[in-house]
Specification:
The chain is of the alpha/beta class. Helix content is 47%, strand content 16%. The strands form two sheets. Strands 1-2-3-4-6-9 form a six-stranded mixed beta sheet, with helices on both faces. Strands 5-7-8 form a three-stranded mixed beta sheet.
Length: 256
Amino acid sequence: MISLSISENIAEIVLDAPKKLNSLDEQALDDLDAAYQEAEAAGVRALLLRGEGKGFCAGRDISNVVPATDDALGYLGGKVTPLMRRMAAFPAPTFAAVQGACLGVGLGLAIATDVVYVAENAKIGSPFAALGATLDSGGHALFVERLGAHRTLDLIYTADLMSGAEAVAAGLFSRAVPAEELLDFTREKVAVAAAGATLAFRESKTLVAAVRDQRIGLWESLDAENHAQGRLCDSADYTEGFAAFQQKRKPVFHGR
């Protein structure tokens, strides 16, 4: 159900249960966590997450869930949240190619990814009104920050879904592209990142997370940038980047 391939410093992780729109049970979450651990141990310089078939991930697999005995907190707090934290902390640029349904836990996987490209016809929102459940996996934080409280509750109360194009226009994700072009487009961008200055990207990833999660302001962020740049001075890629600029050639980075 979860597959990992590694080639040319790029990890590609695939949610591969298309008949159920790649919905995830607890075992699938464990397997996905293990795939990220393996990719990190391999020292890849970029990672792509995608779903096989018509949908990216329709969320939790509830086909065998019995409400009377359901441990929703254990599933979400014990499995989903640690996985999202691992994904967000991955020490290289991460990308997701999102097509079709991106709901619930699927939305959480996108939230925990650095760069998300969506198909124009992707479906994003809160489908839980018909289940008597609430939006989860970080959806409230993302929607309120980008859409505001009124639009967030509108989506929750009505269960209306946004298209990928609408979601990007609202600032939820990075770019929307035609569905038939999504995977090739994403792989091209991933390859560019994998050939880049990995240490510099990692510093920026840390800075962005601090601004988002710790709400650091301009001057604290500026000071953090200064120290990051100071650390990068000792890297081989920093030396190569300046040498390439001065010699008017394309830099060749090795991620160190």
